[in-house]
Write a structure and sequence with these properties.
With 159 residues, the protein is mostly beta strands. The chain contains three helices and eleven strands. It has one domain: PK beta-barrel domain-like (M1 Pyruvate Kinase, Domain 3, Beta Barrel), CATH 2.40.33.
């Protein structure tokens, strides 16, 4: 049985690299691509050409954004992650499958901050987000997700 662990409180997509992501109420997530309308879904993101899993969807916890010092405060869109969650430990989702709305995802790795994020925002942001910059995930089952959807952690497969 799935474990309910928080909610998605914001969904953000940016069709063009470098553009500030915009909030949407709902979005289609596509296996092998990412979120419809987002730069990474069409291979146009800053890191699209790099190897490795977890480039389809990025998540960050609202609690992390809320805890940033005033000198490094980021709005949800400025964080440049696709989903903003509340009430879930995203670091614990590395290697785990979870569901948001009609979409099944797998947490692949932490979304560590980079110099690019800091260049687009303000000095000191990267240092504040080390180890808590969010999660990179892949879409395993296409579907729709909506702002307010519950994030359900799926059970581990039986051994």
């Amino acid at each position: 049985m799935p474990t309910v662990s928080g909610r998605v409180i914001g969904i953000y997509i940016a069709p063009v690299r470098g553009e500030l992501p915009r909030a949407v109420a709902a979005v289609a997530a596509l296996v092998g691509a990412g979120l419809a309308g987002d730069r990474y879904a069409v291979g146009a993101g800053t890191w699209s050409g790099w190897p490795g899993a977890g480039r389809a969807v990025t998540l960050i916890a609202a609690e992390v954004l809320d805890s940033l010092p005033a000198s490094c405060r980021l709005g949800a869109a400025e964080a440049r992650r696709n989903l903003v969650t509340r009430g879930v430990d995203l670091n614990a989702l590395v290697g785990r499958e979870f569901r948001v709305g009609g979409v099944r995802l797998r947490g692949q790795r932490l979304c560590e901050p980079c110099r690019h994020l800091e260049a687009l925002t303000r000095p000191g942001v990267a240092a504040q987000l080390i180890g808590r910059g969010g999660l990179r995930a892949d879409v395993l089952e296409s579907g729709w997700m909506r702002c307010g959807d519950v994030l359900e952690i799926l059970p581990l497969p039986a051994a």
